[in-house]
Amino acid sequence: MADIRSFVAIELPEEAKMALADLQRDLKIGAPPRAVRWVQTTSIHLTLQFLGDVAPAKVEPIGEALRGMCADLVPLVFEMRDVGVFPSPRRPRVVWVGVTEPQGLLVALQKKVTQALEPLGFEPEKRPYMPHLTLGRASDRASPRDLAELGDLVGRFEAGTVGQVPVDHITLMKSDLTPSGAVYTPLAVVALGK
After folding, report:
1. Tens-digit pLDDT profile for residues 110-143
2. pLDDT value of position 178
């Protein structure tokens, strides 16, 4: 059986996806038409750890590790707030919505996920965790001028608070890449707390 491209994520409730769709629509109005490949809002999620290609035999041990790690955690709420680009407004590659959670519970959750999966051979990311929700990616067809306009637009855009997201579970997700975009399928849903 082929390896499974997968990641651990927080799925968003319908209200959050609708708020992101409204925000994305507002950004599209001012963005150069060929500058961005917008993400389907139905598939937007908050990634906690990308695992890459995983052997099917590892799916159950990953689920067990996540269940053990989540048993002592409490549900949390994060806020979707403001918009930005990576890596810089002059060279935008990703358009994102920020994620804030002032108590540190979200960052602690992400760290616990990486610690739980490291013994299974999944290396933690070397860069610090920067929680965000991807709204779009720069198009390969975008000219330098298009990208500069996009960076300017996002830099001037005042999104403020977009919504709040309650988190009471995390999901081990399968990702199938198709010509029309990635298709995500839950492999394991793990509740926070006992």
Report:
1. 999 999 999 999 999 888 999 999 999 999 999 9
2. 82
Establish whether 169 is a catalytic residue: no
Report the percentage of the chain scoring pLDDT > 90: 88
Q: Which of 16, 31, 45, 184 is catalytic?
A: 45
Cβ atoms of residues 159 and 25 within 8 Å: no
Q: How many CB atoms lie within 10 A of CB 76?
A: 18
Domain total of the chain: 1
Residue 45: partners with Cβ closer than 8 Å, 6 or more residues away? 9, 10, 11, 12, 133, 171, 173, 184
Domain residues for the domain of 75 are 4-191
Q: Which residues of 39-50 are buried (b: 16+ CB within 10 A; e: fewer)?
A: bebebbbbbbbe
CA distance linking residue 113 with residue 167, whole number of Å: 15
Query: Which CATH number covers residue 40?
Result: 3.90.1140.10
CA–CA gap between residue 26 and residue 30 (Å, rounded): 7
Please pick, among 12, 132, 135, 153, the residue that the annotation labels catalytic.
132
